[in-house]
Design goal:
By secondary structure, this protein is mainly beta. The protein is built from no helices and five strands. A five-stranded antiparallel beta sheet has the order 4-3-2-1-5, with no helix packed on it.
Length: 53
């Protein structure tokens, strides 16, 4: 979480998780009140949805 109190979120294999700490190779995330260490490469940030024309 950053200093302003805003939650940073990402997708982790389809699950919306909160990022607590992000480093180059691993990150600490929170999901349903539990904390996990995961590989940072598996996190997806700001996936944009595009509509077909």
């Amino acid at each position: 979480m950053n200093s302003r109190g805003n939650k940073t979120t990402a997708d982790y294999y389809g699950l919306q998780v909160e990022i607590i700490i992000q480093m180059n190779h691993c990150s600490l995330i929170r999901f349903h009140g539990r904390e996990f260490i995961v590989d940072s490469a598996d996190l997806v940030f700001g996936r944009s949805l595009q509509q077909a024309a």
